């Protein structure tokens, strides 16, 4: 699950980012972009200033390959491998990165020196002392490296308990892609609610010649958790009540989130619970689907003629809300760089390398594949999907920046998958999820 984790003071249904970000502010990524197609050799060369170390230093960077993350990773590797410092980055997918990050943070000595991380997991990682707090380094170098021009809300997204643990590079939200030619032919408009989504997709299924017109990433081993939380958030409900600390899985909203997601299944390929985001992309590429909702980092690939004969036909809109409220079926994910506490490389040097990768030059070069943290990089004219991103940002559900959030998501995921697949009834699924979440929260309250 990839989720923005910033200020906790607002309840679901509020719009905490709209005023702060404004229309021209950049915020948008996850689990989330498409496979890398930009080798480091062709990456943007940017200034990377640091005093040469007394002896040669190897720096291992862990970051998953995506069209949204690669510009930052590749700029850092290319620009900062000099003066006795050599950066190493091996290709890895998101699942592989997650496994490697867990392993490197678990030991006394780690394998990696710079980690790509994201707001959803920072509270858990920071609460266990596995990430190095960056406040002192930010105070020392922030102004001279331009880090003071990174979006404050995105910096807060990578903070926990008042301390900064990550330098934000970019963020993503859900965007809806659709076949404009199919919509025009049938006289359809982009759906604004799940009810409209069912109606529009049903019309395409009946009259548009596409058997399974809707594509969502609902991979049982990962994406189903994100989907359920997005539906729950659109209904104005958190995993855990912010005031009482009581999990909300036994509420009517929790049941409705399941009902609404299950109502979409007849419009999707029967194998949907085996589909991650690349499979959803492929459905759009080959024309077997006409509507898809996925992270914005996947959208650029849809616009490339080399990927699909329908590239010129794709259009973009914000995702619908579940029930007509202001909060959309959506999730906001902020990606950034963190320094493991267990690295043996000088943390001052590592911070300077990170700062170079999120500078103005690399951030500008990352658009439109990424939505950089550096303010002013993205405008509605930046890409065919920028306007959809900008609207979706202000209508994402507020974050839940607590160490138990990612654990609840992970531990309840198999139950969500069982309920969506019909192996477990909705009431039984709710009961099991309530028990799981209650036990997790209790462990933090002891």
UniProtKB/TrEMBL annotation:
PROSITE patterns cross-referenced by the UniProt entry: PROKAR_LIPOPROTEIN
UniProt xrefs under InterPro entries: Bact_solute-bd_prot1, SBP
Domain of life: Bacteria
Pfam families recorded: SBP_bac_1
Protein name stated in the entry: Extracellular solute-binding protein
Organism listed in the record: Pseudonocardia spirodelae
């Amino acid at each position: 699950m990839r989720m923005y984790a910033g200020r906790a003071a607002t309840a679901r249904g509020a719009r905490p980012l709209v005023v702060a970000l404004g229309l021209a502010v950049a915020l948008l990524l996850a689990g989330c972009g498409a496979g890398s197609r930009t080798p480091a050799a062709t990456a943007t060369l940017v200034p990377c200033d640091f005093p040469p170390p007394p002896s040669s230093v190897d720096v291992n960077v862990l970051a998953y390959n995506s069209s949204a993350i690669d510009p930052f990773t590749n700029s850092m590797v290319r620009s900062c491998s000099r003066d006795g410092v050599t950066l190493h980055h091996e290709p890895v997918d998101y699942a592989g990165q997650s496994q490697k990050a867990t392993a490197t943070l678990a030991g006394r000595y780690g394998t990696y020196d710079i980690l790509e991380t994201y707001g959803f997991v920072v509270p858990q990682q920071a609460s266990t002392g596995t990430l190095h707090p960056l406040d002192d380094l930010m105070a020392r170098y922030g102004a001279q490296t331009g880090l003071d021009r990174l979006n404050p809300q995105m910096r807060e997204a990578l903070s926990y308990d008042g301390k900064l643990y990550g330098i934000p590079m970019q963020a993503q939200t859900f965007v809806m892609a659709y076949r404009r030619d199919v919509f025009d032919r049938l006289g359809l408009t982009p759906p604004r609610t799940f009810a409209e989504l069912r109606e529009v997709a049903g019309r395409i299924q009946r009259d548009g010649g596409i058997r399974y017109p809707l594509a969502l990433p609902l991979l049982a081993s990962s994406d189903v958790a994100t989907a359920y939380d997005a539906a729950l958030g659109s209904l104005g409900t958190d995993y855990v009540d912010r005031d009482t600390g009581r999990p909300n899985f036994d509420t009517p909203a929790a049941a409705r989130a399941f009902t609404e997601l299950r109502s979409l299944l007849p419009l999707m390929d029967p194998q949907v619970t085996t589909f991650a985001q690349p499979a959803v992309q492929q459905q759009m590429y080959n024309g077997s689907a006409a509507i898809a909702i996925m992270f914005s980092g996947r959208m650029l690939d849809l616009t490339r003629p080399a990927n699909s004969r329908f590239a010129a036909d794709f259009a973009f809109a914000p995702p619908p809300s579940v029930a007509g409220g202001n909060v959309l079926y959506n999730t906001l994910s902020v990606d950034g760089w963190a320094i493991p506490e267990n690295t043996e490389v000088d943390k001052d040097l590592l911070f300077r390398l990170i700062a170079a990768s999120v500078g103005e030059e690399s951030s500008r070069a990352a658009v439109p594949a990424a939505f950089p943290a550096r303010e002013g990089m993205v405008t509605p004219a930046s890409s065919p999907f920028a306007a959809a991103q900008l609207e979706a940002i202000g209508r994402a559900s507020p974050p839940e920046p607590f160490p138990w959030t990612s654990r609840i998501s992970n531990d309840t995921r198999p139950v969500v998958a069982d309920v969506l697949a019909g192996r477990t009834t909705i009431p039984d699924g709710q009961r099991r999820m309530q028990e799981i979440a209650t036990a997790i929260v209790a462990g933090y309250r002891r």
